[in-house]
Design goal:
The protein is an all-beta fold. 0% of the residues lie in helices and 30% in strands. It is built from no helices and 18 strands. β17 (290-293) and β18 (298-300) form a beta hairpin.
């Protein structure tokens, strides 16, 4: 028995009421349509153990291929043959949630929670920008942060912080730190570096270290808490070390001033070589070769009496 038509293209039926329709094909033009069912099943006669692919196709007219939402039974995943734009105009609190599994961009078998592969060929000296994030609403003095670690709590996550001082400002900064310690290392727009939240910065260039808090020509030493400091009383130029004072708690021999040869002290022309002694101290050369008793105002040669 062949097919039997109900109505024709010229004389269609008005309304058909039925509990169910079994058909090989349903086609035609529908101006509107709806279903009262709370679910819609595609490929409902599938009796396999999930080995049969299925798809929902959207006609694109003369452009091919059609847009497809496909179920890949082999890999147990949905495939979109086009991009996906989630507008979230309904205002849901979460735009996209992946409850488990790995997410891949540019890779079909991601091995990590977020696995990105960019095969783009980049010329020598170029930048292959794989990841980029912009906080376009960032106000001056605010910070944009990228963080990862064990938990969002003190010292349990590492943080990349971008401090925004102003549009195109060299005051903009990259701050590397930990939760509760956001500025372990700070890099300014001038290339200067600060440590542990310092507001003054060191410049590294050409293999040299420049500290804006130090003065050229002065000798640098470790001060309180190991901070590098200098002082105008101790300077070095060419091969000359200049100090306004040499101080020992006991005598010049403790600590000692030692030379492998003769020691020559040369005052500037027209100036005396003065040795200032306490009124209770005497001046001696090799114990008694030359002795000056400062309290008695006597000079001895070969004697201390």
């Amino acid at each position: 028995m062949g097919s039997i038509n109900i109505g024709s293209s010229l004389t269609p039926f008005g309304t058909i009421y039925t509990d169910s329709i079994t058909a090989n094909n349903i086609y035609g033009t529908m101006a509107t349509g709806s279903t009262s069912s709370d679910s819609w099943i595609i490929n409902s006669d599938n009796a396999t153990a999930d080995t049969e692919n299925s798809a929902l196709s959207f006609e694109r007219g003369t452009t091919t291929p059609n847009a497809l939402l496909s179920w890949d039974a082999t890999n147990k995943k949905f495939d979109f043959n086009s991009g996906l734009n989630i507008t979230n105009t309904l205002g849901a609190p979460y735009g996209l949630i992946v409850a488990s599994g790995n997410v891949g961009i540019g890779i079909t078998n991601p091995q990590y929670r977020l696995h990105v592969v960019d095969p783009t060929a980049t010329a020598n000296g170029g930048y292959n920008k794989v990841f980029m994030a912009h906080s376009t609403g960032l106000a001056s003095g605010a910070t944009s942060q990228f963080a990862w670690g064990k938990a969002d709590s003190a010292y349990n996550q590492a943080e990349f912080n971008f401090y925004y001082a102003g549009d195109g400002s060299t005051g903009n900064q990259l701050r590397l730190g930990l939760n509760n310690l956001p500025s372990v290392i700070t890099i300014t727009g001038t290339g200067a570096i600060g440590l542990n939240g310092a507001t003054t910065y060191t410049t590294l260039s050409g293999g040299n270290i420049t500290d804006s808090q130090l003065t050229a020509g002065r000798v640098t030493f470790a001060g309180t808490a190991g901070l590098l400091v200098d002082d105008a009383d101790l300077t070095f130029a060419t091969d000359t070390l200049s100090a306004t004072k040499l101080l020992s708690s006991t005598s010049v021999s403790t600590p000692s001033l030692i030379s492998t040869g003769s020691i020559t002290m040369t005052p500037l022309a027209g100036n005396n070589l003065n040795v200032a002694l306490s009124t209770t101290g005497d001046f001696a050369v090799n114990t008694s070769d030359l002795y000056v008793d400062t309290s008695a105002h006597n000079v001895g040669i070969g004697t201390t009496i």
